[in-house]
# Entry
Amino acid sequence: MKFLRRPLFLRVAEQLEQSIRRGERTNTMPSEKDLAKDLGVSRTTLRQALGKLRDQGLIIIRQGKNSRITRNKITLPAQSLKSQTVTLLSPVPLRQLRQHTLVWIDELRGLLHEVDLSLHIHAGLAPYKGHPEAEIEKLVHQHRSSVWLLLWTNKSTQMAFANLGIPTIVIGATDEDVPLLTASVDNRAITFHAIGQFTSRGHTSLALVTTKSKMGGNRQFESSFNETLSAQENRHFRGRIIIVDEQEPEKLKRALLQVLNQVEPPTGFILVHPLLMLTAYNVFQGTGLRVGRDVSLISAFADNSFDYLTPQPSYYRHDPEVFAKKLFSLVRKVRDGAAGKEDAFSLFPELISGKSLGWVESEST
# Structure
């Protein structure tokens, strides 16, 4: 009788899950109307059940179309579900990662070790290029991992993992239609907060300097910057987005010099990558501009190299150990099949306000 008291939609979800895992349902589900009739439930109950399957990564709900079953969910080796390994996928080797990333990776490795789990790092560009489905499917079958962590990934890579239906966490942001859990820093909140810091100090012309990346985090910076500009009541408020290749500092220098020659050039700059911050310091100081007085700069992320900049830079910093602990908790839930979309998290970092963030000086000063 205890079983019968469980909500009907949960029992329907379990029934559907079992049929998917047994291979009785493949590719797409029947229409809501037909499926509800077959199961003898209302469409409202069915939608709740399908929502549960979506949260488990078993299906992708498509508006106006039949729900799609994530392929290979049942064909992956059973050993993967029992694996003691968690795999971090990165496009670059550890030595090329930023210091704060290395800190949380090391902390996560220690936490996993305490519960007899190991962290494996797989570095390589192949899963990030073009149409990576075949490469990722091969990779997943080679590495018996219970959970995959995706670092610096684009939408194509994320969707390839989603379609495989394996336990996956994206380190960073995703597009709304990517059905994967995320562990990230809140880029939108950083942008809103940084703009508030500038406007409260009299800045009315701002620029967001970002990179030519297809990662969801960069798109979050851009969309939130535009949203904030649109919401400004002051019609004289100006903003622009400068998109550059972080690997080509000379192009960034030219872009910054060009924007400085425009009418009403920006006096406040939000830079989404530490390398962009370093280049901006070099460019502005090389032209005789005083950082923190003629122009103000905020970096969205911290970097050890900032210790050598003068004046002291302003930047956002999150505690990598806190990030690692929250990620560890999420990994364990995902591995146990107990995670839902509400378990995704996004940290808001602390602003370290240095001398690179100043007030707009009046013409009389």
Q: What stands out?
A: The chain has twelve helices and 14 strands. Confidence is low (pLDDT under 50) at residues 71-79. Residues 78-186+322-347 form a domain with the Rossmann fold fold (CATH 3.40.50.2300). The chain has three domains: 3-69, 78-186+322-347, 187-317.
